[in-house]
Amino acid sequence: MPQIPGNDILIALATWLRQWLLTIGLDPASIDILMAVIRALLLGTLALLVFMLITWLERKVVARIQDRIGPNLAGPWGLLQPIADGIKAITKEDTTPDGADVTIFNASPIVAGVAALLVYAVIPFGPNPGGDCAGTPCGPLTGTDMSIGLFYILAVGAVSLIAVLMAGWSSNNKYALLGSFRAVAELLSYEVPQVLSITAMVMIAGTMNMTRLVEVQSVPFIFPLFVTALVFFISGIAESGRSPFDLVEAESEIVAGYHIEYSGMKFSLFFLGEFVHAFAVCAVVTTVFLNGWVGPFSFVPPWIWFFIKSFAVFFVMMWIKFTMPRFRIDQLMAFNWKFLVPVSLVNLLVLAVLDTVLRMMGLGRAANPWVWGLILFAANLLMLFIALWALGRAARRTRSTERRIVARMDDVTPAAPVTAASAPAAGN
Asked: Which of 19, 71, 253, 263 has its CA 20 to 30 A from that of 338?
C-alpha cells in the first residue's frame, strides 16, 4: 500500500524515535509504553490548541453575524486573545466558599476537563498508511485504535455528568446545587437519543471501530442516515451545553448554574471542557457521517481534509448558537422526550426493516451502495417530513389551546371601573 501524502513525516519521526530508543537499550515493551505516553501528550496538546483556536474563531464569527467588532487588539487580527484570556484566568484570585467540600470542589473542574480530552484518544485523523514502522505495523493516525471506539466515546462523555454533580454538590450553594440537578437532567436526557442514533449507525455499519467506520463508507453516511446524523448532532449540541440548549448555565434563571462559586483557572477548566467537547462532537460527526479523512483531492493530506470537515461542522454549530434563542427548561425537556426520542425509535425501526429488505433484494450496502444510499435517503426525507409535520401540528394545537384559555380569562375578568384618574382628559 503506498504511503499517504502528508503522513510520511509522521511515520519517519515515529520510526526514527523507535530506532533511537532501541539503540540506547530500551526493551520493546518499554518503548511501546513511552510511545503511548507521547501520543497522549500530543493529543492533549492538539486539543488545547484547538480550544484556543475555536475560542478566537467563535468570537470572530459572532462579531460578523451580529455586526460588531470582534477581538482585534491582542496581536494581529486578535490572534493572541486566547493567550491573554489564559493569562487573565491564571492570575485571577482563586476562591473557595466557606463550608465547601474542598477536595471534591477542586477535583470537579479537573474531571470536567479531562473527560473532554479523553474523547480525542479514539478519533482517527488519518488512515492506516501501510508499511512497517521499525518492526511494528503502522496504525491509523489516532491515539489508540479501539474495536469499541464509539462505546468508549459514550462512556467517557458521561463522565462530565459526574463533574457537574460534583461541582454543584460540593459548592455549599443552593443555586449551584439546583443548577447541577437541572444540568444533569438535561445531559442525561439527551444521551438517550444520542445512544439510539449511534445504535442505528452501528447496526448499518456493523462495527464500532472508528477507523473501520470511515473505511466502510462507500457512500458517506450523512445521506442514507440523514435523520440519524441530525439527531446525533442535535444531541451533541445539548450534551456540550451550547445554545440553544445551554440551560446548564442559564445566568438569568439560576445565577450561572453549577459553576457559580468557581473563579480563575477552575472556571476556565469548565470553559475548556465545554469547547473541547463541542469540537469533539464535530470530529465524531465527521468520522461517522462525513467519511472522515477522505477528500476529493489526493494531493491534500488526509488529516487536513479531516480538520476542514470538522471545522465546517463547528461553523454550523456556531451558526445555530448565534441565531436561535435559548429554550425554556420545559421546552428543552419536552423537545427531547416528545420529539427526539420517538423520532430516534422510529428511525431505528425503519432502518432495520429497510436495510434487511434491501439486502434480501440484492441491493444492500455491499452489493450496490449508491442505490442503497438513495433509497435510504428518500426514506429519511419522508421520515423527516412526517416528523416536522407532526411537530408543527402539535405546536398549532398548543397555541390554539393557549388562545382559548386567554380568551376565557378575559371573559371572566371584570372590567375596571372608570375613575377620574383613568378617564381621558377633555379635548383628547
From this structure: 253
